[in-house]
Design a protein that fits this description.
Layout: E1 5-8, E2 15-18, E3 24-28, H1 31-37, E4 42-48, E5 52-55, E6 58-64, E7 70-76, E8 82-87, E9 90-97, E10 111-113, E11 129-130
């Protein structure tokens, strides 16, 4: 069995363990991710929900994506750190913030999404494929 991906919030009140490899890893430059991260983008890893275990209690807030689908963001009620996202239209996936990993060096971004909304000062790896919005399919 491969080593699980583990992590959580800054204070340790929320912890997760994820079996399996990520389905998708990206930097997202949409305005929602910019606002939530307080920077130019959010960095994420998406996994099959079946392999995810979460302990601790998160506070949730919903927002509507450009697609019209609801995405729910989970953050710690103690330290306020955003940890994960779920999607009403894709209940079988679970997305974590790459910075919440115990070993953030395991994060390997594949693409940049919403590059059309990126700021000139947010310079990401030029070798990554960039999509104006979300990739097709």
């Amino acid at each position: 069995m491969d080593k699980p991906f583990t992590g959580g919030c800054a204070c340790g009140a929320i912890r997760y363990s994820i079996a399996g490899e990520p389905l998708f890893s990206n930097h997202c430059q949409c305005r929602d991710c910019q606002r939530e991260s307080g920077s130019g983008h959010g960095s994420y890893m998406t996994f099959a929900r079946a392999g995810v275990t979460v302990t601790g209690e998160a506070k949730h807030w919903d927002m509507v994506a450009d697609s019209g689908n609801v995405k729910t963001r989970g953050f710690c009620t103690q330290c306020g750190v955003p940890v994960y996202m779920t999607f009403a239209a894709q209940p079988d996936v679970f997305t974590i913030r790459a910075g919440s990993l115990d070993e953030p060096t395991r994060y390997r971004p594949q693409v940049v999404t919403y590059a059309a909304r990126g700021n000139g000062w947010d310079r990401l790896d030029p070798g990554l494929t960039k999509f104006e919005g979300m990739p097709p399919g």
